[in-house]
Q: What sequence folds into this?
């Protein structure tokens, strides 16, 4: 632990001194828990997208407001829930459910399937792919359930982990393609320790960190 | 660094052995010393064919240890697990797979497979024998990793002996000792009375132990461990009928009382509760032995043991309601063992019948008694075709009511090249029958996520009922694999050498491998409509554990001796290995991106340390004074699958390795009085998350008084 801290301290000192040389303007610290979209070449990273976050814990367990957060892969932005019945959004998040804009979820031409492999490893939509659509609440394009879709739920420790080696291949509302990798389900992109309280595990959950590459020209290559 | 110390000590030990020329002998290495557990008959140490360790009364007394856990944690290759008490992991196998015997009869009352070795006081123990490798050919179920046999002192020499020990510590304050509220106290009192009236030997031994609650978590109301009282009473009777027949009776009664104060977060609201846990066990063991002639000896053994563990918690905000957890187990056995000594062959044959019963609030209904009956026969042939070679063949058959029968053969040998070099090896089958928990558990954790675990017998019925009520949202594939549980089987191979260099150095090296088939694993079989998981037990996994164990004892001179031990352990779930090989397993880097897992990152089964070692120095300048320092090291172990890939790899959550240093010293004034003291956990190592039951540094002192 000490070595990690020391390494982190040295590393941050180096970064800080490097920043001083390159940019004279003081670096404003980014709140690690704030919603944030950053673009790095073809890859867009979204941090802390709230997805029906926990309001309280009742007799039936933790509960939220029951509202989805809508996101557009085309404009890299959150979409107001008043636009939920439009084709402006591509993905909608609430708890561990992710919807695509099609059939029971919206008017768009959306679809998705879960690909096993790495994000970098999938350079185009495989030719034999079948895009699934939502048929809420029976089934979803992005399969629900532990180890079936994008996450693994550890019941005894009450933690959700984004299963490594899963890429969500998305057909957007407008029929374009994107690949999405969910990175984390908790605030700040950090999964609480197994020994954290259930209250922390609940209130810090439902904050998505994910990255994606969107192909705007309509082709199946990323 | 720690590894270096261990390595150096091994090297030092081995190399200096060649340079020393003074004649000094091991005190305990006399011809008369025997081990019983390896063959169920008295066997001289030089003839044992399997890896073993012996902890004698002197080792126990000089270590200042009070509970069985204290002394076992200092032995090579034994790993003390946390959770449901202190369990013993041997050769990398879980506590479920080591049978713990008291004078040859099994102790019962396991929680989640763990028999808490803190339950056992060692104040009246003559010797502890540890035999490694599958021993089901003699002991049946549970003896898959090995056997720990606690042999109590029933010598019945006329004496009264009493002792008192006080210990204290201050985990937050290090060495400084302001005697404030943080100080914890530890008291131990024992009394042994033995006498022989006419020819009947009688012995009573009593022990009382108290340990304060200690709060390692700042601001926590939860005391870990909680204030504990433990009482043990043991009575033995020994009566000879003539010169050929004798009768022995041992009755032991153990009672633990643990005060509890909890703050439980249940669905968001924190409710405080208070109560107690009480565990009571009784063992009754009459044995009638008859020597028919110089070559035939037979023993009729009866055994009854009752374990009753209960927990009652009252909630501060709801004083009327209480949470009750109860587990009762009754175990009865009748057994005959006959030993026949021929010219070059010794035969041991035995047969018996056991009844195992359990009742628990953790099952469907506490009134509903679960029962298993076991009939067993075993035979063993020890053949000594010529002086240098010993061959032992044994087999045992266990037939039982609840599941498939088990046949456990074993073959072992020892070849003595000369007085100083022997090689020994064994191959055997071990098994563990499914326990009552795996068959009947009916548990729902309302505090943490609401997940449920159902035993294999009832799981299908319960889930079908829940499904009819619309309470099930999903049935997993593993649900269809729920069939009647089978015993878990293993094949164990041990191959080693025993070396004596001069009279001063002894080295034992052992390589082991255990292949376990149809390992019972907890698997998710369904999901409730509220998202909570339902688990059950299925024979699915194939796993192995393998490693190397080295023990080295070296006597520098008449006053100083050293001993050191090391175990290297590698384990794997075979399915995990196949999946990694097939490129199906991914992990996540610290930046969150995922990639394929390398085979080198796989860490095997969780809660196991790759390296474990110990180093002891004994200094005994006169017969009146002794001192010892013992170092124990355990490397890091893995806790949870934090990256969600279903197995344990180096990116996952792990607990840091640690070193424990215990030291003790004592002196006798005349033959009647002994003063002693010591420090446990000198480095004050604490780990509230992963070793909640490890006490901080404790200083203790005691006095023993003996009247002959």
A:
């Amino acid at each position: 632990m000490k070595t990690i801290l020391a390494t982190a301290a040295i590393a941050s000192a180096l970064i800080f001194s490097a920043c001083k040389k390159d940019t004279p303007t003081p670096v404003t610290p980014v709140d690690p828990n704030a919603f944030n979209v950053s673009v790095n070449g073809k890859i867009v990273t979204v941090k802390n997208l709230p997805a029906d976050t926990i309001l309280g814990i009742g007799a039936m367990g933790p509960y939220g407001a029951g509202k989805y957060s809508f996101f557009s892969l085309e404009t890299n932005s959150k979409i107001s829930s008043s636009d939920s019945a439009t084709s402006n959004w591509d993905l909608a998040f609430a708890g561990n459910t992710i919807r695509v804009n099609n059939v029971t979820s919206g008017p768009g031409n959306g679809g998705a399937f879960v690909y096993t492999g790495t994000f970098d490893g999938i350079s185009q939509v495989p030719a034999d792919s079948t895009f699934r659509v939502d048929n809420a609440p029976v089934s979803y394009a992005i399969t629900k359930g532990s180890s079936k879709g994008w996450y693994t739920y550890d019941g005894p420790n009450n933690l959700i982990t984004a299963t490594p080696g899963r890429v969500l291949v998305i057909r957007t509302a407008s029929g374009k393609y994107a690949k999405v990798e969910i990175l984390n389900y908790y605030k700040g992109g950090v999964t609480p320790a197994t020994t954290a309280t259930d209250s922390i595990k609940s209130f810090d959950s439902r904050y998505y960190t994910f990255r994606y590459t969107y192909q705007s020209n309509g082709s199946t290559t990323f | 660094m720690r590894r270096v110390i261990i390595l150096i000590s091994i090297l030092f030990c081995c190399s200096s052995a060649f340079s020393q020329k003074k004649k000094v002998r091991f005190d305990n290495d006399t011809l008369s010393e025997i081990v019983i557990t390896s063959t169920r008959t008295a066997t001289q140490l030089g003839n044992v064919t399997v890896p073993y360790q012996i902890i004698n009364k002197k080792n126990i007394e000089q270590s200042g240890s009070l509970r069985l856990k204290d002394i076992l944690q200092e032995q090579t290759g034994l790993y003390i697990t946390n959770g449901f008490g202190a369990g013993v992991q041997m050769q990398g196998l879980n506590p479920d797979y080591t049978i713990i015997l008291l004078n040859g009869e099994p102790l019962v009352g396991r929680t989640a497979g763990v028999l808490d070795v803190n339950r056992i006081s060692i104040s009246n123990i003559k010797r502890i024998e540890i035999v490694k490798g599958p021993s089901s050919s003699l002991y049946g179920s549970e003896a898959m990793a090995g056997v720990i046999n606690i042999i109590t002192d029933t010598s019945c020499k006329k004496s009264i002996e009493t002792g008192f020990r006080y210990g204290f510590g201050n985990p937050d304050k290090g060495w400084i000792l302001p005697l404030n509220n943080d100080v914890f106290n530890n008291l131990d009192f024992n009394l042994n009375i033995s006498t022989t009236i006419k020819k009947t030997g009688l012995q009573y031994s009593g022990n009382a132990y108290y340990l304060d609650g200690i709060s390692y978590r700042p601001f926590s109301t939860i005391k870990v461990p909680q204030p504990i009282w433990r009482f043990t009473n043991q009575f033995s009777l020994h009566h000879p009928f003539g010169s050929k027949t004798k009768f022995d009776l041992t009755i032991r009664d153990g009672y633990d009382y643990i005060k509890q104060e909890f703050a439980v977060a249940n669905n968001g609201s924190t409710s405080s509760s208070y109560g107690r846990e009480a565990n009571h066990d009784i063992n009754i063991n009459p044995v009638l032995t008859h020597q028919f002639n110089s070559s035939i000896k037979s023993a009729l053994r009866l055994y009854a043991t009752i374990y009753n563990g209960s927990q009652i918690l009252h909630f501060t905000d709801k004083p009327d309601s209480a949470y009750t957890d109860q587990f009762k187990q009754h175990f009865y056995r009748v057994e005959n063992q006959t030993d026949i000594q021929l010219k070059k062959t010794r035969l041991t044959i035995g047969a018996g019948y056991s009844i195992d019963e359990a009742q628990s609030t953790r099952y469907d209904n506490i009134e509903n008694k679960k029962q298993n009956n076991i009939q067993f026969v075993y035979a063993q042939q020890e053949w000594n075709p010529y002086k240098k070679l010993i061959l032992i063949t044994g087999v045992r058959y266990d037939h039982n009511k609840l599941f498939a029968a088990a046949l456990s053969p074993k073959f072992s040998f020892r070849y003595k090249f000369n007085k100083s070099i022997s090689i020994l090896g064994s191959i055997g089958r071990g098994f563990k029958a499914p326990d009552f928990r795996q068959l009947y558990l009916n548990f729902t954790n309302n505090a943490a996520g609401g997940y449920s675990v159902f035993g294999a017998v009832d799981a299908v019925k319960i889930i079908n009922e829940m499904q009819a009520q619309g309470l099930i949202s999903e049935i997993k594939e593993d649900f269809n694999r729920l069939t009647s549980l089978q015993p878990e089987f293993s094949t164990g191979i041990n191959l080693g050498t025993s070396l004596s260099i001069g009279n001063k150095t002894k080295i034992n090296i052992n390589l082991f491998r255990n292949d376990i088939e149809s390992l019972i694993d907890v698997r998710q079989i369904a999901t409730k409509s509220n998202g909570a998981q339902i688990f059950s037990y299925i024979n699915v996994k194939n796993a192995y554990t393998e490693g190397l164990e080295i023990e080295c004892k070296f006597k520098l001179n008449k006053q100083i001796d050293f001993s050191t031990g090391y175990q290297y352990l590698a384990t794997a779930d075979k399915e995990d290995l196949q999946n990694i090989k097939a490129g199906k397993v991914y992990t996540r880097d610290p930046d969150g991106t995922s990639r394929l897992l390398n085979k080198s990152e796989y860490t095997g089964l969780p809660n196991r340390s790759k390296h474990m070692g110990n180093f002891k120095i004994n200094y005994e300048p006169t017969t009146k004074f002794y001192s010892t320092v013992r170092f124990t090291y355990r490397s890091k172990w893995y806790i949870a699958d934090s990256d969600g890939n279903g197995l344990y790899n180096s990116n996952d959550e792990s607990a840091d390795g640690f070193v424990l240093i215990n030291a003790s010293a004592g002196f006798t004034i005349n033959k009647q009085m002994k003063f002693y003291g010591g420090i446990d956990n000198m480095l004050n190592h604490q780990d509230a998350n992963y070793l909640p039951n490890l006490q901080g540094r404790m200083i203790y002192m005691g006095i023993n008084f003996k009247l002959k």
